Amino acid sequence: MCGIFGIVGNHDQQLGEILLGAARRLSYRGYDSVGCATIDARGHIDLRKDVGKIDEVNERLDFAAMRGQRGMVQLRWATFGAPSVENAQPHLDSNGALIGAHNGNIVNNVSLRERFMDEGLTVRGTNDGESCVHAVESHVNQGNGILDAIRKAARDLQGDYAFVIASKDTNESDPAMYAIKNGSGLVVGIGDGMTCVSSDLPSILPLTRKILRIKDGETVSLWPDRVEIRRVNDGLIVEREPEMFTEGMDAAEKGGYAHFMEKEIHEQPQAVAELIHWLVASPHVEPFLDSMRKARHLYLVGCGTSYHACMIGASYFNRLAGIPAIPVLAPQFTETLASILTPDDTVVLVSQSGETKDVLNALNAARRSNATLLGILNVLGSTLMEASDHYLPLACGYEISVPATKTFLNQVVMFLYLADQLRAGGPEIDWDSLPGLIEKTLHATDAAARRAAEILNTHNEMYYLGYGMTLGVAMEGALKLKEITYAHCEGMLSSEFKHGPLSAVYEGYPVLFVSGPSDAAMMVNHISEVACRGGHPIAVACEDGLLRKNVSEYVVIPDAAQEIATLLAVLPLQLLSYHMSLLRGLDPDFPRNLSKTLTVD
Ligand code: AGP
Asked: Is there an atom of ligand 1 within 6 Å of 74 CB?
């Protein structure tokens, strides 16, 4: 997840330290490259950028020494184009007159680059941020002023993004910098003889607490002493009063949420939208699909939450695409299946960190067989990414909270997307509607999840049961509960419950059932076995009359097809765990004994 920051002052000054400070405060979002640009009063642009961490790159390029009246810094998290100096941002236009940087994904980047090359523009890299600059340049070349060129460029750029752009040639009356928001975050700060703009608040707050929040479909023009917001579609001025931000830095980093976990749960609609946009446009998907289609055996390998995504993924491949896929825990894979792999097999290794030792052990064991090794990961540049034959990024941005939430959902969405592509009759899913459905589910289930948390909080052991596709969801929900509430919660197949665990049930014993729409009738049998022994059954499912009659509590998720309802069902379980963790006075972001990246056996 990239980050941008731009600043406009009224005289040449040492901007380097300010840009470095802003970069460090954006760095929690995750990045692989960093770049700074300044423009002095004479219109001279100083651009320095490279791959690496802020402090190493600063040591090489001396950002700290940069001077100017205006400046911008960008942290890049690679999606389009490998991490490289050319792809690092900011970017110049063909003649070095405009400079800009973006945050987000331009999904039609490939076709835009071809268009710009046909127009004779100088395209230096493959990064989509460069396309934002050329899109503006292209309209400036047709005689438009910069603001109109930005508004017209917005019609060309598809995807979710925000970008800042400045021209070296400006009069005092012209805006010194411009920005536009379309799907990615953008906040403006108004200080004393200075204005600034950024992807989020933490980089602005040390400079000023006077804030203006920009909305989607708006541009903002910055002068040293004022800003002007206009609508993209008709260019009309938007009047908006600045607000004073009174909370601390910690609150700013958490985007107004109490914990990173809560923030990351609520980032899921956007994370899914960005992943889908990326997948639709990415040339990396086809080699993946090809290896899956051709596989004699297809194994999905991971640990913990990533393994649960593999379980759901296997159901998707089996049931939607008719491709037998086998989910395996990474250490078990190493101990059992790795030794019988052949070059015709495909192993998909799934890990948000890309550094989990158990997963890397499985990868190394599988490598000996010449099977095709595919990686699905969130952290670009990770060992898994480097060692895989092909990889797909989860495109979630940085996940700080130890309990995985948005990376899990994007793993499941990734599998669903791949399975949908592999269907015999071609894709069927309406991908555009999924982010909205996720948003709706978070809103619709929060109160019921909170109520369920209050009930479960009075117990220290319980079961979560799933059936078919929802088994992985039940197991993931149970893991999330154990991880951040320290209660014992076992996730298992609902039909297995009668084979032993049923003896644990007593009056009021809580058992939560996660049901897909097509499993409701079967699930009611399993619910009855608990209810008739005095247990307290809770359902997480789409509305179903039969289920409603048989449970004590019902967390209703929006109506959806089986494969979509399956992934929606995890959302209230994340919320439930979060609420219960708070009821217990625990910090869900940093549960005891656990680490975000497990690099030990
Ligand atoms: C998830 O909430 C856990 N923190 C944990 O189970 C995690 O999923 C597991 O350690 C695997 O991590 P990975 O995805 O980085 O490989």
From this structure: no
Ligand 1 mean position, distance from CA 158 (Å): 33
pLDDT < 70 positions in the chain: 1, 28-30, 250, 381
C-alpha–C-alpha distance, residues 421 and 276, integer Å:
12
Distance CA 58, CA 17 (A): 10
Contacts (Cβ under 8 Å, ≥6 apart) of 292: 298, 317, 323, 346, 348, 374, 418, 422
Residue 305 CA, ligand 1 centroid: distance in Å = 5
Characterize the bridge pairing of strands 461-466 and 372-377: unpaired
Would you give the end-to-end CA distance of the chain in angstroms? 30
Distance from residue 600's CA to the centre of ligand 1 (Å)? 13
Residue nearest (by alpha carbon) to ligand 1 atom 16: 351
**Element of type H or E holding 313:** helix 304-321
Radius of gyration (Cα) for the chain, nearest Å? Answer: 25
pLDDT at 30: 66
List the residue whose alpha carbon is closest to atom 10 of ligand 1: 304
CA distances from 580 to 402, 443, 461, 482, 585 (A): 16, 18, 13, 11, 9
* 215 tagged catalytic: no
pLDDT at 74: 96
Distance CA 596, CA 488 (A): 20
Instruction: Decide: 370 and 396 in contact? Cβ < 8 Å.
Output: no
Q: Which amino acid is at 547?
A: L
Q: Specify whether the CB–CB gap between 157 and 112 falls below 8 A.
A: yes
Tokens describing residue 427: 């894709």
Predicted pLDDT of residue 78:
77
As given in the structure block, the two tokens for residue 354 are 């890309």
Task: Look at residue 592 in the predicted model and tell me its pLDDT.
Answer: 87
CA-to-CA distance for 428 and 359, rounded, in angstroms? 32
Q: Cβ neighbours of residue 161 under 8 Å, at least 6 residues apart?
A: 102, 103, 104, 105, 106, 128, 132, 182, 183, 184
Can 303 be counted among the known catalytic residues? no
Distance from C-alpha of 257 to C-alpha of 260, rounded to nearest angstrom: 7
Token duo for residue 65: 């020494």
Give the Cα separation of 476 and 307 in Å (integer): 9
